[in-house]
Specification:
heterodimer, A: 494 residues, alpha/beta, 11-stranded mixed β-sheet, 13% strand, B: 502 residues, alpha+beta, Arc Repressor Mutant, subunit A, elongated
Chain lengths: 494, 502
């Protein structure tokens, strides 16, 4: 048990149940690892006191009875987008400077209720807007994977979560996914990340980016861990009107590995111009693995795919421009110094100019523009119609009997930090090209590490499932995971 | 059944320097929903609480907080719609109206622009017997109220009170069917009456629980009729909206002033600008708040935190079945009982008055009951500045007095004394009459004895009365005096006539 931090949730759970270790031991190991991983810049607020208290309580529970809670004693990292009571929760933005909520998000509360331990808050792109974790007020997160000594992005927006799990600073982490923010970073660091069906996990207490797209999910070291952790995160929440009133099945029990007779669709529209051959090859390998496991591979068409990215970059900023209006310097967070004679307008302007970074400002301005009189129909309403068509594309395919859809998770492996600094922002947005359709359609999607590129960087494949069928999706992912046998870890340099 | 035959009132005509002008008026009434909790949070709506004490996390727009619709407020809106004979939309949706202001913590108001919960309805506004205006309701939607900014507590700072933030409002939008200041005020009075009958808004205008935005334009005689035929607004003048009026008197004054202002502009060769204005009652003028160019671009879009609001017809039917009798129906019913239009209007103006009256009149003479409620009780309460709910005399007590009058146990005059006793001291009227010997003397023997005494003592008067029958009244008065007013006047009259002519 020398490498406690490397344990998966399932392994730790079993070891704890057998009494081979204690939560406090694992927690201390993680706290030590975090301590030594400053170079990754993954954790931004450490909560060792909370962690130790929760670990001790978990250990007491473990001794008290045979059947422990699902996540008893498991140390987690929590993305800074989740409001955690009494703990800084800033969405990695200056505008929420000093903000400590007086409430606990439903997701973190449920994780605590399931016995989890919180190690601290994780870095991310500001307000979850970004694909490289370069927009955070806390600075860039660094990917534990390196090539030629180059610092790479862990992806975004859940970059801190990805980096922390990949570097074994915690057993698993929460993420949120609005356009790919769980799946893309998971792929960039070689871990597994699941975006559940929209409405499966409560949004209450999660700082909103784009309310109709945001969904929290687990970022873990294995498919099994995603199943365990999703079970703890999911469930109907009367405090979130968009939360579905559905029972939460035992996702772990769905992991039989048997996918014989399942129909897996390969969408031709995802074969993009200029896609790196390695990604193509990985995709083909993934399909072959699933076929070998007994699934039927079919070519499918999702004809409106090419309109997804533009529609997403209208809808998400539109909602964001409204959701972020509350950060005005009046009630909490940052307020700019006022000059003599400044009125409320100056207070808003200065506060928001200082408090929001460039990417957030860009999206707020795009969103304001697409909702403004005279442009609403041309942009926002049109994007909504596109969204409906994209949703229908998936419904049609599922109606034809397809059980899951296999695509690459990202169009490339992790790129260098700062590499896109001078690029057109749209180049950055292209990172989401394979993932945004899933958010627009509200479907579950999972990113599974499936191999390394020739530079030795991890690559992921995405599986998209039917709505509310996370169990089935996880089982297909489990089969892919077993076949791919991805076990590589980044060499420790930090 | 309710008699709906009425003539529309004549539109108000204002004489300009060059020609006559008519007014076209439409109102948006904001009515605070009577509900203990806010539209999207469990926070209290109690008026007058410590600043910022009735505020839930979602009301102060804390990060990650989400709205959850209060079903009772939805029921109240449906009830209101049914009371205004309006269509109920089984599917409606909430939109965000975006603008920045410190008393709007979210930076948007959740409202219903595209799909309101209530569609077209109507309000009958009576302007006199047989004269009424049928005002069409365009829609009613649910929305959140804003908080309160306080600018006069400190020279350098402003303060914000979020107690009102998120309280449910119904915005009741009329068509431009109102044709004068008096009609506009009467419309608000009627709307308020209906809402209070329904129990969906307390109508307290002083606290701002009912306030109106008034849209006013002017047109040449005949133009409105062309608009009515075509529903083409180009026949009408450019409208101005006067915001936030919370008194009937100010509504009338503001419309009058605004119409005259517009007439002066048009007759001077100018053009009325579409804009939002405020009425200053001290100066008796409206002034510009913001022009069309300065108007906010509210960037309405569907609120992604809320699913479309779906309600079931069965639920609506249940609410409809529980609807109280509304003012028009109640008034018609009272008139069928024999009350005059005026008495019926007075008694139905406030639901509590009507309820009181109905309790008094139950099983009794309606007209007599109405007289006693309106003339004696209301007069007395007004003198004491008391409401009907605060009346020291209950409907049962007043009914008891009416019974004593009807049974001729007491005379009308004694009844007034009895009323005053019961009003100030309480007690069962019949018992009071018994204990204090206030019973009317109907025993002709006793009356005759008194009369004989008076005749014997006044022979000269008797002689005169035989010549001039008008003097009989003098003998009646003397008998009443002798019996302490308790003699039955009818019996006295008869006996006096008999004796003098006999």
């Amino acid at each position: 048990m020398t490498e406690l931090t490397r344990l998966t949730i399932a392994e730790a759970r079993d070891a704890l149940r057998k009494g081979e270790t204690t939560s406090l031991e694992i927690t201390e190991a993680c706290l030590g690892a975090i301590e030594g991983a400053g170079a990754l810049n993954a954790f931004v607020h450490n909560t060792p006191e909370i962690a130790r208290d929760q670990a001790k309580a978990a250990d007491e529970r473990q001794q008290g009875r045979d059947e422990a809670l699902a996540m008893n004693g498991i140390p987690l990292g929590i993305k800074d987008l989740f409001c955690t009571k009494g703990v800084p929760s800033q969405a990695a933005s200056r505008i929420l400077e000093g903000f400590k909520p007086e409430y606990e998000s439903t997701v973190t509360q449920q994780l605590f209720d399931a016995g989890s331990v919180m190690l601290g808050k994780l870095n991310m792109d500001e307000f979850a807007m970004g694909s490289s974790n370069e927009t955070s007020v806390y600075g860039d997160v660094v990917n534990p994977w390196k090539v030629d000594g180059r610092a790479l992005t862990p992806g975004g927006s859940s970059g801190g979560s990805a980096s922390a799990v990949a570097a074994d600073l915690c057993l698993a982490a929460t993420g949120t996914d609005t356009g790919g923010s769980i799946r893309q970073p998971a792929a960039f660091v070689g871990i597994t990340g699941l975006k559940p069906t929209y409405g499966r996990v409560s949004r209450w207490g999660v700082v909103a980016f784009a309310s109709s797209l945001d969904q929290a999910g687990p970022m873990c070291k294995s498919v099994r861990d995603c199943a365990i952790m999703l079970g703890a995160m999911a469930g109907h929440d009367p405090k979130d009107s968009t939360s579905a009133d559905l029972a939460v099945p035992d996702f772990e029990a769905a992991l039989t590995g048997d996918i014989r007779g399942k129909k897996i669709g390969i969408p031709k529209e995802y074969r993009m111009e200029g896609m790196p051959p390695e990604i193509e090859a990985l995709w083909a390998d993934g399909a072959a693995m699933l076929r070998d496991a007994g699934a039927e591979i079919v070519d499918i068409s999702l004809p409106h795919t090419k309109y997804a990215l533009p529609a997403y970059y209208v809808i998400a900023p539109a909602e964001a421009s409204s959701n972020l209006a509350r950060y005005d310097g009046v009630k909490y967070g940052h307020r700019a110094q006022m000059a003599q004679g400044d009125g409320i307008t100056e207070m808003y302007e200065k506060t928001r100019a200082e408090g929001f970074g460039a990417e957030v400002q860009r999206r707020v301005m795009i969103g304001t523009y697409v909702l403004s009189a005279g442009f609403y129909d041309a942009y926002y309403n049109r994007a909504r119609r596109v969204r409906a068509l994209i949703k229908k594309d998936f419904e049609d395919v599922f109606a034809q009997g397809v059980d899951a859809i296999l695509t690459p998770a990202t169009p490339s492996a992790a790129f260098g930090l700062g590499e896109m600094a001078d690029a057109d922002p749209v180049q950055m947005y292209l990172n989401d090209v394979f993932t945004v359709t899933v958010n627009l359609a509200g479907l579950p999607g999972i990113s599974v590490p499936a191999g390394l590129d020739k530079q030795g960087l991890p690559l992921g494949l995405q599986l998209i499932g039917r709505p509310w069928e996370e169990g089935d999706l996880l089982n297909t992912a489990y089969s892919l995971e077993s076949a791919a046998g991805f076990v590589e870890k980044p060499a420790k340099w930090w | 059944m309710l008699d709906l035959t009425f003539e529309p009132p004549k539109p108000k005509v204002i004489q300009g320097a060059q020609s006559d002008w008519e007014l076209v008026i439409g109102l948006e009434v904001h009515a605070q929903v009577s509900s203990k909790a806010k539209l999207f949070s469990g926070a209290s709506t109690a008026f007058g609480a410590e600043p910022n004490s009735n505020v839930a996390f979602v009301d102060s727009a804390m990060p990650g907080m989400l709205p959850v619709i209060n079903e009772f407020c939805v029921a109240q809106a449906v009830r209101t719609g049914l009371g205004l004979k309006a269509e109920i939309n089984l599917t409606s949706a909430f939109d965000r109206k975006n603008y920045f202001y410190p008393d709007l913590p979210q930076g948007y108001q959740i409202s219903q622009l595209y799909h309101p919960i209530v569609g077209e309805g109507e309000v009958l506004v009576e302007m006199g017997p047989g004269v009424a205006r049928l005002v069409r309701i365009e829609r009613i939607h649910l929305e959140q109220d804003a908080g309160k900014s306080i600018h006069d507590m400190d020279p350098a700072m402003s303060f914000v009170d979020l107690n009102r933030t998120g309280v449910a409002l119904m915005e009741i939008v009329s068509r431009p069917d109102i044709r004068g200041p008096e009609e506009a005020a009467a419309y608000v009075v009627k709307l308020r009456q209906i809402l209070r009958y329904l129990g969906t808004c307390d109508g307290n205008m002083q606290n701002g629980n009912l306030r109106a935005d008034v849209n006013v334009s002017i047109c040449q005689p005949g133009a409105y009729e062309r608009y009515q035929e075509t529903q083409d607004f180009s026949h009408l003048g450019t409208r101005c909206e006067i915001k936030n009026m919370n008194s009937m008197r100010f509504i009338q004054q503001a419309i009058e002033h605004e119409a005259r202002r517009q007439i002066a502009i048009v007759e001077g060769g100018g053009k009325v600008d579409q804009e939002t204005r405020l009425y200053d009652p001290d100066k008796g003028e409206t002034r510009s708040m913001r022009s069309k160019e300065e108007a906010h671009d509210y960037r309405y879009f569907p609120c992604p935190d809320l699913l479309p609001l779906e309600i079931e017809q069965g639920w609506v039917d249940d609410i409809a079945a529980d609807l109280p009798e509304l003012p028009d129906a109640k008034k018609a019913r009272l008139m069928e009982l024999g009350l005059t239009d005026y008495d019926a209007s007075v008694l139905t103006a406030e639901k509590e008055d009507a309820d009181y009256f109905e309790e008094v009149a139950a099983g009794r003479d309606a007209k007599l009951s109405a007289n006693w409620v309106i003339n004696e009780l209301f007069g007395r309460l007004k003198q004491d500045e008391k409401s009907t709910a605060e009346s020291p005399i209950t409907a049962a007590q007043l009914g008891g007095i009416v019974d004593l009058i009807k049974a001729e146990t007491i005379s009308g005059k004694i009844a007034k004394d009895l009323f005053e006793i019961v009003y100030t001291e309480g007690g069962d009227p019949a018992q009071v009459v018994e204990e204090r010997g206030m019973k009317q003397v109907t025993d002709t023997g006793a009356i005759e004895a008194a009369l004989d005494e008076i005749i014997a003592a006044n022979p000269a008067q008797v002689e005169k009365a035989k010549v001039n029958p008008k003097l009989a009244g003098w003998f009646v008065g003397q008998v009443m005096k002798a019996t302490g007013g308790k003699a039955n006047p009818k019996a006295v009259n008869q006996l006096v006539a008999q004796k003098l002519n006999g």
